[in-house]
Design a protein that fits this description.
mainly alpha, two-stranded antiparallel sheet, 2 strands, 68% helix, transmembrane helix, G protein-coupled receptor activity
Length: 212
Amino acid sequence: MTFEDFENYSYFYDLPEEEESPQSTLSIAHMISLSFYSVAFLLGVPGNAIVIWFMGFKWDKSVSTLWFLNLAIADFIFVLFLPLYITYVAMGFHWPFGKWLCKMNSFIALLNMFASVFFLTFISLDRYIRLVHPVFSYKYRTIRNTLILSGIIWISAAVIGGPALYFRDTATVLNNVTICYNNFHVFGGVVDFTSASQMCIFANTVLYKQLA
């Protein structure tokens, strides 16, 4: 059976009625996750805002302050979008914010992840060059070069995270619950799942396409 046949195949299950109903309460793991996300938001917004204020407006510009300023900006943008995901989990993975915020929320998460990794890498590399190669550091370790590298990092992170703006989509599933997911295939505006097992098949299909 080809994959196209698999997509067009019909599945029928005779499941008990209680298995077709979504869970009305969050699991302990989800509640713990919500607690961590909430703490990260409450501490991350003012914390990163203070770092941005001092390094961007109060302290003298240097190579080190520019690296940490960009890192703080990446984290600040990410924590600003955390309430969307907190609400998504708290509502039983129902996305009420529409398609474009679904795309933007996922894009910001990827942008932060790659930008943070790149900036942390360059911070480590910068310290290595400063200690081990002082002559090279004195010649090329300048604010101008740091700004150019920072721009390249932001553009690279945006390009890598860019597919989220295209593939992320929303779909209405069981009991009018809207999910935010990776749509690698042209599904209809409404995906009607009549059982939990069919929802698993949908998830496996999306995963298969992602890995293919």
